[in-house]
Specification:
Strand content: over 45%
Helix content: under 10%
Largest sheet: 7 strands, antiparallel
Distance between the termini: 32 Å
Order of helices and strands: HEEEEEEEEEEEEEEEEEEEE
Strand order of the largest sheet: 10-11-12-13-14-15-16
Number of helices: 1
Radius of gyration: 18 Å
Shape: globular
CATH class of one domain: Mainly Beta
CATH topology of one domain: Methylamine Dehydrogenase, Chain H
Oligomer: single chain
């Protein structure tokens, strides 16, 4: 009965949302010339969208125009926005130093904080959550997420999650809708690509939402629906799989979703 109710709820929501679409955002050809590798993560404010890649961060207007790019030492992971600051999870593959980089809204570096692991990040109730391993490319079931206080980025707890099926590397992207934490992985062997967690990192359910190249929930002023809404980043156009250090002219497309009972309904026009 519960499954039937959920199915009916999704059907009703889909019909309602058909009248409330959000146009896709597509960057102009060549606008991301500084991009190296693929988009690692995303976050947003009322005024801008921020996209991280292996060696930097882009700032975009909500019209998709690139406003600025800031270079960072590799490996820049997922990013999050909190009270006028962007936090980037940074792992240096050369000397193994891990930091959380703090930037202002115009992506100028403000400070950096030593932190374990590196990986993805989101903020919920003033606590920063970051994926902190393992970085192993071999399939594994257990992943660590560490919580940090803000603004000092002091680690307060690390939780080891049993994803329930095997993944590669650590969690790739994290986001919060203000109630739950959403984590996305590189799933293997047909497993779900993500999970929904409580703020104390208990698993609510697994989800099939492939957003390993960045997603975030919309700020209140841009969320016009009755349910949480988010955007997801994906590559289009030319292949981003180019040798390290070479500019990549690929474009990205941003699509929009409304989350109903843990199901992501595409509301992109």
């Amino acid at each position: 009965m519960k499954n039937l109710f959920t199915f009916l709820l999704i059907c009703i929501a889909t019909i309602c949302l058909a009248q409330d679409k959000i146009p896709a955002i597509i960057t102009e050809p060549g606008a991301l010339a500084a991009l190296k590798g693929h988009i690692q993560g995303a976050c947003c404010s009322e005024d801008a969208i921020y996209l991280s890649h292996i060696e930097g961060i882009f700032k975009l207007g909500w019209n998709g125009k690139v406003l600025k790019h800031t270079a960072l030492p590799k490996h820049t992971g997922d990013i999050c926005y909190w009270r006028g600051r962007i936090y980037a999870s940074l792992y240096n593959d050369v000397d193994g130093v891990n930091n959380i980089i703090e930037l202002d809204q115009d992506i100028n570096i403000v400070s950096k904080h030593k932190a374990p692991g590196g990986g993805c990040a989101t903020v919920h109730d003033g606590i920063l959550y970051a994926g902190t391993g393992p970085r192993d490319s071999q399939p594994h079931r257990f992943n660590n997420i560490t919580m940090f206080t803000l603004p000092d980025c002091r680690p307060i707890a690390t939780m080891t999650l049993d994803y329930g099926s095997e993944t590669r590397y650590a969690a790739q992207c994290l986001a919060s809708d203000g109630e739950f934490i959403y984590a996305v992985f590189y799933a293997t062997n047909g497993g779900d690509s993500g999970m929904i967690l409580t703020p104390d990192l208990k698993v609510v359910k697994t989800i099939n939402f492939n957003a390993s190249t960045g997603f975030d929930f919309l700020p209140p002023s841009r969320n016009k629906g009755p349910h949480p809404r988010c955007f997801k980043v994906r590559h289009i156009g030319s292949d981003w799989r180019v040798p390290a250090g070479k500019p990549n002219p690929a474009q990205i497309r941003i699509d929009f979703f409304e989350v109903v009972d843990g199901n992501f309904i595409n509301i992109t026009d």
